[in-house]
Structures are given as structure tokens and as C-alpha cells.
Design a protein that fits this description.
The protein is mostly helical. It has helices at 2-28, 33-39, 47-56, 63-75, 89-124, 129-143, 146-153. It has two domains: 2-78, no CATH class; 97-153, no CATH class.
Length: 154
């Protein structure tokens, strides 16, 4: 059991590091760059303004140094400032955590209440129209992206 948990923890850490790396790289691949995302296209026209913003945010350092600083800040809970609201990100995450947990619990309850009886019905009526219908509905449910399904359900 301890070996299983250790493997799971190591896998989780590798996954989190991989996702963090992908997020970091994607932020660097924004068309126009991070400076334009921070200031808008008009403000980024001045070379002095661009240099000042790059220095303020550490974007003038080598990419590996930027990544180290960014990852270190994230490990300390400093997720930076929102590009949209210019407010710290961590309080926004904390403020919305309760709603996220509530939504997750309710979604799990609904999926168990609907999924278990549907699965039992499909198992009892194997290779029948009922079984095929349950499988098709399940496949459609799994294939629709959550943001589309959420919008449709609203």
C-alpha cells in the first residue's frame, strides 16, 4: 500500500510539474507577447515602455531563470496578478473554491444516481436496445466538452 501511494504521489508531482511547465510555455507563446497582453497593443508601441514592463516583470532575464522564479512564486502561493482585473489571483481562487467543491459534490451525486441504475439496467439487458441506448447516451455525455454541456444545461 505504501509503495502504491508513493508511486501515485510521484506521478501526481510529475503531472503538476508538467502542467505548470505547459502553462509557463503557453504564456510565452501568446501572440504579440506578454507585454502586449499586459498593456494592450497601443501601449506596447513605445520601445521604452516595452523595456520598462519587461524589466518590471523579469521578462528581460533568460527563459530558464524566468521559469525558476515563476515556479518558486507558485510554490509559495504567489500566483501573480490577474491580467483582466489587475488584482491578486490567489484570493480569487480561494473565494471560488467553496462553489467549486459544491458543484463537484453535486455533479458526483447526480452521476452516481443516474449512472449506477443506467449501468445496472444495461448490464441486465446486455446486447439489447436498452444496452445500446445507454452506451450511446454515455458516449455522447463523455464526448461533449464540459463548458458546452454546462452552457446547454443553464
Amino acid at each position: 500500500m505504501a509503495r502504491f501511494l508513493a508511486v501515485r504521489m510521484i506521478t501526481a508531482l510529475i503531472t503538476i510539474l508538467g502542467v505548470a511547465t505547459i502553462v509557463f510555455v503557453m504564456m510565452r507563446l501568446i501572440p504579440g507577447g506578454i507585454v502586449e497582453a499586459l498593456t494592450g497593443p497601443a501601449a506596447a508601441q513605445s520601445p521604452e515602455n516595452v523595456a520598462r514592463i519587461r524589466a518590471e516583470h523579469g521578462l528581460d532575464k533568460p527563459l530558464i531563470v524566468q521559469y525558476g522564479i515563476w515556479l518558486g512564486n507558485a510554490l509559495r502561493g504567489d500566483f501573480g496578478v490577474s491580467l483582466g482585473t489587475r488584482s491578486p489571483v490567489l484570493p480569487e481562487i480561494i473565494r471560488r473554491t467553496g462553489l467549486t467543491i459544491e458543484l463537484s459534490v453535486l455533479a458526483t451525486i447526480v452521476s452516481v444516481v443516474v449512472g449506477v441504475p443506467a449501468g445496472m439496467l444495461a448490464a441486465l439487458r446486455g446486447n439489447s436496445g436498452v444496452d445500446a441506448t445507454v452506451r450511446v447516451i454515455a458516449l455522447i455525455g463523455l464526448s461533449i466538452p464540459e463548458f458546452v454541456l454546462g452552457t446547454l444545461l443553464i
